[in-house]
């Protein structure tokens, strides 16, 4: 059976983290800040487990937003962080070049705010020939309505919506893939809420 071109694989996608900074998280109202951070960390751990290229960009680190959140820095300690002034990462030459250098055409976006930096990036990526996927539960909006309207606008331009757990399961797909099994299961157990509790329970019962 021929593999689906629509599905994510460890060889066809890259993760772009945008403005995952505490100073911006204070303004998030579309999801609890702790849940968003948990999901972003799970997504970053997934990228590491499956060896995805990761591009990290921040903005206004010394003025307002602060550095990349420590929980994410701990997951990605060796990755370069590209600070910028533009809201749109594709209008920053260094970030644009870093994304191009991944060689991947499917881009996973996570960050803040959905109404601005995430939607600007995803829409620009679509226009530039990339396939954009917004990891909606690892993004934060300034309001529930603003977050939802931004998602709808992006969908209208062909951007796809997904969740961090769907990304992990899509990359793993076969639990007999031993090379990534332990790492994938560990992420679900520690970050996957009820599903993770269930896996822990199953481990204890066997």
Automatic annotation (TrEMBL):
InterPro entries with a match to the protein in the record: Hydrolase_YcaC-like, Isochorismatase-like_dom, Isochorismatase-like_sf
Chain segments annotated as coiled-coil in the UniProt record: none
Chain ranges of the Isochorismatase-like domain: 13-164
SUPFAM superfamilies, A to Z: Isochorismatase-like hydrolases
Name the record gives this protein: Isochorismatase family protein
Organism field: Comamonas piscis
């Amino acid at each position: 059976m021929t593999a689906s071109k629509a599905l994510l694989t460890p060889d066809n996608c890259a993760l772009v983290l945008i403005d995952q900074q505490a100073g911006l998280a204070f303004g998030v109202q579309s999801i609890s800040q702790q849940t968003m951070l948990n999901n972003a960390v799970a997504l970053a751990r997934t990228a590491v487990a499956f060896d995805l290229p990761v591009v990290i960009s921040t903005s206004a680190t010394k003025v307002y937003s602060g550095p990349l959140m420590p929980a994410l820095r701990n997951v990605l300690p060796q990755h370069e962080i590209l600070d910028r002034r533009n809201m749109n990462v594709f209008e920053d030459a260094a970030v644009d070049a870093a994304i191009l250098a991944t060689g991947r055409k499917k881009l996973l976006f996570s960050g803040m705010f959905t109404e601005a930096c995430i939607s600007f990036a995803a829409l620009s990526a679509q226009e530039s020939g990339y396939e954009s996927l917004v990891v909606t539960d690892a993004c934060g909006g300034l309001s529930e309505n603003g977050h939802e309207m931004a998602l709808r606008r992006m969908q209208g331009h062909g951007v796809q919506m997904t969740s961090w757990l769907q990304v992990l399961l899509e990359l793993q797909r076969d639990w007999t893939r031993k090379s990534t099994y332990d790492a994938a299961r560990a992420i679900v157990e520690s970050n996957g809420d009820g599903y993770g509790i269930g896996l822990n329970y199953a481990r204890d019962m066997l």
